[in-house]
Amino acid sequence: MASEKKPSLGSAMVIGGCGFLGHHVVRLLLRDYTTTSISVIDLRCTRNRRPESDGVKYYEADITDADKLISVFSEARPDVVIHTASPPAQSNDSVSHALFKKVNVDGTAAVIKACQTTGVKALVYTSSASVMSDNKSDLINADERWPTVRGENQTEYYSETKAAAEELVLLANRASPAPSLLTCAIRPSGIMGEGDTMVLYHMINIYRQGRTGVQVGDNNNLFDFTYVENVAHGHLLAARALLLTSSSSTVPLDHERVDGEAFLVTNDSPVYFWDFCRAIWAAAGSPMGTDHVRVLPRGVGMVLGFLSECFFAMIGKPPTFNRQRIVYSCMTRYYDISKAKKRLGYRPLVSLDEGVRRSVKWTLEQEKVNAEKK
Amino acid sequence: MGAAQQIAYFLLHPNELRSIAQWKVWHEPVHRRDASKETPTEKSCFHFLKLTSRSFSAVIQELNPELLMPICLFYLVLRGLDTIEDDMTLDIKEKEPLLRDFHNIMEQDGWTFDKNGPNEKDRELLVHFDDIIFELKKVKKPYYDIIKDITEKMGNGMADYALNAEHNNIGVGTIKEYELYCHYVAGLVGEGLTRLFVESNLANPQLLVRMDLTESMGQFLQKVNIIRDVHEDWIDKRRFWPREIWSKYVDNWDDLFAPANREKALQCSSEMVLNALKHAEECLFYMAGIRDQSVFNFVAIPQSMAIATLDLVFRNPAIFERNVKITKGDACQLMIESTQNLRVVCDVFKKYARRIHKKNDPRDPNFLAISAQCGKIEQFIETIFPTQDPNKVRAGLKQEDPKMDALETFYLIAAALSTFILIGVLMIGIAWYFGARFDQVFKNIDQKIAGTVTSSVAAVTSVAHEEL
User: Where are the bilayer-spanning segments (chain B) (predicted)?
Assistant: First the structure.
């Protein structure tokens, strides 16, 4: 790739660029693309910062503050905006609901307004594959034709807000008052990687607590996990496609257009759910095979999950183990990413196998570094 | 297997006996060869087909009459070529010209060859090769041209390998070399067969455009055989596993067979299985392009046998100790399932992919890659036969009844509460049964409390006394 000329993205801005996904987007921008400038907006810019020599400009701003956003955009003058900012999808209480609404929906509306006001050419939004899931039915090789699940059918408010925000973004494509703004959305599934505080963190904790010996369900359910670098890659391919469309005088045909569209992005390698868990545990140093594993039928798991919810409700704490997690570990949920392959030219840069190795290694090293600081 | 052992085996595995009976009694060939109308040379060809191929001869003889003889002859010509190549008693100086010129030799009326060693099991084929040549003359020109072309390519490939001293002494080096070898011995066969199928209009011409699918058909079969035959080849001092793979696990090829290295050997064989599994999707894709039922049967049976064999060899230490093969009952079941339609064959592939996945071991360096490859097979099958329809999913959202959830929750709560109550009642009942005196409980409480109060008063009094 060194001999290859790097494609240009003009002036690029990454919103949420100090976050888990965002800082990988910044890293890939520097590695694989040329830009006239790179800007980052985040609530706090102390984490995941690039060294000064990279020339990345950092702005601290709350994206729900529309006026502040417009002022930052006016200074940075981005051509391309990649909007990755989102609260983590972990909790499900009224405080989190308010935060999801504020950041995901209102914040995204503010971003769109800032783009329209300052002449941005392309906006790529990080949506989620979970917008297609009702959190209990299987999704078997689902593609973008599957409906988004909204309203009372959607049991996760996080996904409701991601779907609402995605809709706002796609409706802003070629829309007044800024018809030159092109938009699209990326729907990643099960992101894991360096900087991961959710998937990997919990998996490694289970290993540390010696709880690798229980499996719920028959482990024939396929799940799509995606290594974070591949998600970042998908975003940048989309941004590049939007810029090319923007500079073209003709409107692309329906089967090849990128603007106004959503794209599923995965590792293109669905794996059996518990195999993924075991791969992480093995990479973290577990010497165990599968001889010690006890298999619980799904029904038993559901009852235990319910009892756990009752117990934690009585002592007034959020449950660490509940029915929804049982459902997730027994659910089939994998996607057909043909659309991203055809229209964006997307292919995973890093295999899931390699992604797991890198991520676990990084996570363990971080723990060591943090331990030394104490 | 002795007769008594066999009887004992079937008594313990009645399903297998049922599969064998089903295949023998109920299988109705799409086409059946009529021996009574054959000339002596035709009979001779089919005789040699049976002699040299126990597994393929049955399915070849059920082919569409248009292709029956061309494919029979194609098989015999390649077998003849292989018999020459395989014979270690022939000097390379004699062997090489024979291999390279075989596509012309097979046009010489009356040509035969009697210099194979006495132990070469298919030598009789070459001793009577004049019968094959006679029948080749009768094949339609387009089919003949295909057979000749493949014979030339294959002969040259085999000659190159025979001359390659490094290959003979050291074995296959890289994965690329391994796949090139599989191309010459099996991929070309697939190419020839595909061209015959398309020429006779029994398969989709797109298969000629997608030669990668054809290549995968041959590679898959050959790789499975190479993995399964590892011990037999080791005994014969041949090796086909690429050094690029086995050198990750052992320093010397022979170390792979030492019992102390069994776990390393299993991991090595896992990587070989992973390498073979990547062809499975393309094999299914290829079979989707077949139009004629007898041709479908002809290509599907070996592929199903191959995926079943792959499951058999996966993480199986026996492959390093002896020859392994699928049981006769399983073979008959596979043949029944392979002679239906693509959907049934997809189910076979899915079933065996899941069996491989089930045996997968997290300590294996290729654990997640194998899991992903099995997942890919399932995903590919979903693209041909989708389980879900997006329109039905959309309709399902609107019709969903929210009360079901509440009802389920109620039942769950009721079940939990019932369990608590039941356990509580049982505990009290058992306690009473073993003589617990509940009527004494309250008296005891009263006495204890009184005692405590008395002690406290005494303590206070004592303290007061000391102060005075």
Answer: 410-434
ipTM for the whole complex: 0.91
Provide the Cα torsion B166, B168, B169, B171; round to 10°: 80
Query: Which amino acid, residue B5?
Result: Q
Q: Which residue has the tokens 């389980």?
A: B387
| Total H helices, total E strands in chain A | 12, 15
- C-alpha distance from A137 to closest chain B C-alpha (Å): 10
- The helix/strand/coil state of A186 is strand
- Which positions in chain B touch A282 (Cβ < 8 Å)? 362-363, 367
The most confident of A246-260, A332-346, B177-191, by mean pLDDT:
A332-346
Residue B50, pLDDT > 80, answer no
Q: What is the rounded CA–CA span in Å between residue A301 and residue A292? A: 18
Residue type, B150: I
Q: Would you call B322 a catalytic residue per the annotation?
A: no
Rounded Cα–Cα distance for residues A253 and A259 (Å): 11
Q: Cβ-count burial of B308 within 10 angstroms (0-12 exposed, 13-18 middle, 19+ buried)?
A: buried
Rounded average pLDDT over A154-161: 89
Q: pLDDT band at residue B458, thresholds of 50, 70 and 90?
A: very low
Contact between chains at A141 and B379 (C-beta distance less than 8 A): yes
Cα Rg for chain B, rounded, in angstroms? 35
Residue B242 near residue B178 (C-beta atoms within 8 A): yes
pLDDT of residue B461: 45
Q: Which of B46, B220, B298, B320 is catalytic?
A: B298
B376 contact residues in A (CB cutoff 8 A): 269-270
Q: Which of A131, A138, A141 to probe the B interface (max B CBs under 10 A)?
A: A141
Please indicate whether, in this complex, the C-beta atoms of B382 and A141 are within 8 angstroms of each other.
yes
How do residues B128-170 score in pLDDT, each as one tens digit?
Answer: 888 888 888 888 889 999 999 999 998 998 888 777 655 556 6
- Alpha-carbon gap, residue B417 to A314, rounded angstroms: 15
Query: What strands, in cross-sheet order, belong to the sheet with A57-60?
Result: A57-60, A37-42, A11-15, A80-83, A122-126, A182-188, A261-265
Q: What would the two tokens of residue A52 be?
A: 């000064």
Two tokens, residue B288: 């989707």
Chain B residues at the A interface, defined by Cβ less than 8 Å, are 354, 357-358, 360-363, 366-369, 371-372, 374-376, 378-379, 382-383, 386-388, 390, 393-394, 396-397, 400, 402, 412, 415-416
